Amino acid sequence: MTPRANNNGKTTVDGKDSTGTEIAGNNGKVIQDGDLDVSGGGHGIDITGDSATVDNKGTMTVTDPEVHRYPD
After folding, report:
1. What is the DSSP letter of 3?
2. Quick check: helix, strand or coil at residue 63?
3. Is residue 21 part of a domain?
4. What is the pLDDT of residue 38?
5. Which domain holds residue 20?
6. Helix (H) or strand (E) holding 36
């Protein structure tokens, strides 16, 4: 089974070690259609596995330098 997530609303992630969407497995896919706001050292999207993709059609706002936004 291929891991998938589709976020089409508003996701707010705030705080160290917080994660908005996390999937594990090869060929995973995250479809980000909504708003993703990340701050405070959080992670917006974490994917563990090979050949994974993120399709970002929404908005992603990162408001502090401790937050990682990929790809760089």
Report:
1. -
2. coil
3. yes
4. 92
5. 4-60
6. strand 35-39
In a domain, 65, yes or no: no
Rounded distance between C-alpha atoms, residue 6 and residue 23, angstroms: 11
Q: Mean pLDDT, to the nearest integer, of 4-26?
A: 92
Asked if residue 38 is part of any domain, the answer here is yes
- pLDDT by residue (tens digit) across 22-44? 999 999 999 999 999 999 888 99
E runs forming strands in 1-72: 4-7, 10-14, 19-24, 29-32, 35-39, 43-48, 53-56, 59-62
| Structural domain count of the chain | 1
Residues 26, 3: contact at Cβ < 8 Å? no
Task: Please tell me the distance from the alpha carbon of residue 36 to that of residue 51, in angstroms, as a whole number.
Answer: 23
For the whole prediction, is pTM greater than 0.70? yes
Return the pLDDT at 9. 92
N- to C-terminal Cα distance for the chain?
A: 29
